[in-house]
Amino acid sequence: MFFFKLFLLFSFFSFTFSHDIETQFHKFDEELKLQCTSWRFSVEANNLSPWKTIPEKCLGYVKDYMTGRGYKLDLERVSDEAGVYAKSLELSGDGKDVWIFDIDETLLSNLPYYVEHGNGLEIFDPIEFDKWVQMGMAPAIEPSLKLYEKLLDSGFKVFLLTGRSEKHRSITIENLTKAGFRTWHKLILRDPEHHGKLATVFKSEKRGEMVEAGYRILGNSGDQWSDLLGAAPSRRSFKLPNPMYYIP
After folding, report:
1. Per-residue pLDDT averaged across 118-146, rounded?
2. C-alpha angle with apex 66: 65 to 67, nearest 5 degrees?
């Protein structure tokens, strides 16, 4: 009887200890999730100073977000709201009403590359990324493709304004076409004279040239704030989610 009571007592304490440990782990997991959600909010709201990599503690969080339902829902939300805005506009009919799209993480997804390179935990390696670009395998971001097609059908002139190098023009056209983006008014890439310029400066200059040519920039879609901020802004801009990297 003594040993039986001792066994019951030991079992009780073991259960209590295990339950307490499980509760503590759950609380830690919830706190980490809240911390990483707060970090991602600050990224998307452009409240953080320039950053180079995601926090190491948030690797699992960012991976789960980017490969899960949350990222897809956020992309759909952005494109749906952009579509509502575009539909509310009355276009002039003179071919001067423009919508600008960035390419990487806006029209084309480089998620397959980033899954293999730490989901933003690794320092960006331009040589390795160029190898990925040259493969021309980036899939379409489907909500952006649907928005893109609606805008073309509505009579918008679509400009593609990207930080990709001019040397990648052919493979970029091939990749875009393969992914379903089959027509646009102009594809603008960085030529040698623009290398070294911040993306905000480069894209502001190119938008300024559009305005000087008489175009009206009614919409702009990009995953980086540098796609959207600066001189000659669009009448309304739409920021797609991207917690994996930051381009000033």
Report:
1. 97
2. 95
